[in-house]
Amino acid sequence: MIGKILEYFNTGVLTADEEELNAAVWEICQETQKKLTELNYTYHDTPQVAELLSDIIGERVGEGFRMFLPFYADFGRNIHIGRNVFINSGCHFQDQGGIYIGDDTLIGHNVVLATVNHAIDPADRRCIYRPIRIGSRVWIGSNSTVLQGVTIGDGAIIAAGAVVTKDVAPNSIVGGVPAKFIRDIV
């Protein structure tokens, strides 16, 4: 069933009964919460943290992965982490739409990556899923929020506290609410 769920999140094409799909998603979310409780509230050394997070996301985190806890995710199975990634404490990953983190990326305290939004029409508040793609050598400052569908180019910097609603060019700095271009990195 995980394959059908990920296909739906990644393409928007429903290939299973909606009620059955929703029940399976809820079950996976509950299992993820159990595993996150173990990860966050028991001491683990760096290799154990990497191993536990690999179990949560369903694939191995990249070599050199480091993370300060606590860490939060809702679904957990649509997170993809490159090599030498550092995630600081208090981050929240809403990952149904897919989160892709490139090599050598730094993610500051309390960063929110939100891949789910809702339809504007009040009569139809269904979920809309779109991925967040973070390039290599990116630095996302503390207390930033990156919204669904955003791609952050290689080498970019997201200033602390930014709300990123649009794609970020490679080797550029953005900041503010909503985030705006500040300058290129030379």
Give an account of the 3D structure:
The chain is of the alpha/beta class and 186 residues long. 25% of the residues lie in helices and 27% in strands. It has 3 helices and 18 strands. The chain has helices spanning 2-11, 18-41, 46-57, and strands spanning 66-67, 71-73, 79-81, 86-87, 91-94, 99-101, 106-107, 112-114, 116-118, 127-129, 132-134, 139-140, 145-147, 151-152, 157-158, 163-164, 172-175, 180-184. A hairpin with a 4-residue loop joins strand 17 and strand 18. The chain starts with a helix and ends with a strand. The mean pLDDT is 94.
What can be said about this structure in brief?
By secondary structure, the protein is of the alpha/beta class. The protein is 25% helix and 27% strand.
